[in-house]
Amino acid sequence: MDPSPFLVSLRLGACVTAILLVLAFPLAWALARTRRPWAIAVESLATLPLVLSPTVLGFYLLSAMSPRSPFGAFLLSAFGLRLAFSFEGIVLGGCVSGLPFMLTALKAGISGVSRNIVEASYSLGKGRVETALRVVIPNMKGAFLAGLVTTFAHAIGEFGIVLMIGGSIPGVTRTVSIAVYERVEALDFAGAQAYAIVLVVASYVTMLALNALQRAEARR
Amino acid sequence: MIGFRIAKRLRAGRHSFDLELERELADGAFLGVLGPSGSGKTTLLRCLAGHERPDSGRIGVGQELWYDSSSGACVPPRLRSVGFVPQDYALFPNMTVLGNILYADPDRENARELLSLVRLEKQAGLFPRELSGGQKQRTALARALARRPAILLLDEPLSALDEELREELGDELGRIQRASGVTAIMVSHSRHEISRLCDESIELRDGRLAGFLPT
Fold first, then answer.
1. Does A133 contact chain B (CB < 8 Å)?
2. CB B168 within 8 A of CB B119
3. Chain A residues with beta carbon closer than 8 angstroms to that of B50
4. What value, to the nearest 5°, has the Cα angle with vertex B86 and ends B57 and B139?
5. B92 and A119 in contact by Cβ < 8 A?
């Protein structure tokens, strides 16, 4: 069994989770703390991947990344970056697809922190950044954990978007899910089983750890 | 000297009314604001603290202008010298009693004096979830006083406590306010609490001054 699909999946999961952790927090903060009408439009757009077919999403992302599109041409001329059929491309696709998981978890966590303690921090002379770092984030550890784990687990199991954007380049864009698909297409069920069972066990252990940690956190 | 004139349209369900209040307080004074739920008491404190913006008016504390609708001036909450004790005390759950006070002011000597003032030296290392209602109230008071605020705002500080503790901590609150010398405004729906603790008391009904109470 070729181990490279596992390495690609793990790399993809780590990159997507790290990027979304940084990008989703300010967005979640804004969405949790505002009642302005634009928030509904932004949140609906950010969570669209939950209901939209990954293939459709992958198709539009691939079209946008193509060197023939204005965005793809700009990336190529300005940074020499070709996203279609590259690891960077599937990371971008994974971020779009994983955003709802991280955003929903963090928004729930921020909303769960009482507005009174945030305002108490402001009244004690602290700004938004210090309040976020010292008051809000330490009181939403469970939400962070849920966001990290579900985003990572979703990214390593990603299939539709990754296949559309990245194809199946060994060691670059061929993830475990794609390896399973290709083994089945080749009627190599034993090979497919070998990849699939590892993904099932790893996903189960991840969810088990998440639930155990969340229960421990709730008891504190 | 603290002077404010606040006007704000408030909605309580389908009913709406105007909060309109103007007062001046001498340094060290303790003003009590009595009124039923939904009369605009909490909004008054939130406007003074900067968590809500009045529709119009002026808030001046000493030489500082915190809010002036005519010039558009509005100082953000973090720059107002306010000690705010909300109804639920709003202690930081991830910090101990000492941590809550040090968050306001990192001076350990000041924190030690405040712990002594509110008689919580032995509870310094406890987290809010380990405290009784009265201990939480005193922690919130110590934290609010840590920055030596120009004004202390108390939103129903005794309402979460049982009858016996309310009497005891009411006395304690009066003692702490006098000892610190801070100018304070306390809102409450208890006539007894207000008349017992405050130097000057007013009654608020539907956002307007309905009368003065004997103290």
1. no
2. no
3. 122-123
4. 135
5. no
Contacts of A122 in chain B (CB under 8 A): 50-51, 76-78
Disruptive mutation site among B42, B43, B52, B78 for chain A (greatest number of A CBs within 10 Å): B78
* Any B CB within 8 A of A120 CB: yes
H/E stretch holding B20:
strand B15-25
Specify whether B166 is located in the same domain as B129: no
pLDDT of residue B215: 61
Q: What are phi and psi of B190, to 5 degrees?
A: -105, 110
Distance of CA B135 to the CA centre of its chain: 17
pLDDT single digits (tens) A124-178? 999 999 999 999 999 998 899 899 999 999 999 889 899 999 989 999 999 999 9
- Residues in chain B with CB shorter than 8 Å from the CB of A124 are 78, 103-104, 143, 146-147
Q: Which residues of A touch B86 (CB under 8 A)?
A: 116, 119-120
Output DSSP code: residue A47: T
Which tens digit of pLDDT belongs to each residue from B123-176?
Answer: 999 999 999 988 999 999 999 999 999 999 999 988 877 777 788 788 888 888
CATH code for the domain in which residue B38 is found: 3.40.50.300
- Chain A touched by B11 (CB under 8 Å): no
Task: Determine, for residues B49 and A139 on separate chains, whether the beta-carbon distance falls below 8 Å.
Answer: no
Together in a domain, B102 and B131: yes
Answer positive or negative: Cα dihedral of B118, B119, B124, B128.
Answer: negative
Instruction: Quickly list H helices, A157-219.
Output: 160-166, 176-185, 189-219
| pTM for this predicted structure | 0.80
Mutate to test the interface with A, among B74, B84, B145 (most CBs of A within 10 A): B84
Mean pLDDT of B93-111: 96
One-letter identity of residue B112: R
Contacts of A121 in chain B (CB under 8 A): 92, 103
B127 and B26 share one domain:
no
Structure confidence by residue, pLDDT tens digits, A56-84: 998 999 898 888 888 888 888 888 888 88
Domains, chain A:
4-113+140-219 (1.10.3720.10)
The answer to whether residue B212 scores a pLDDT higher than 90 is: no
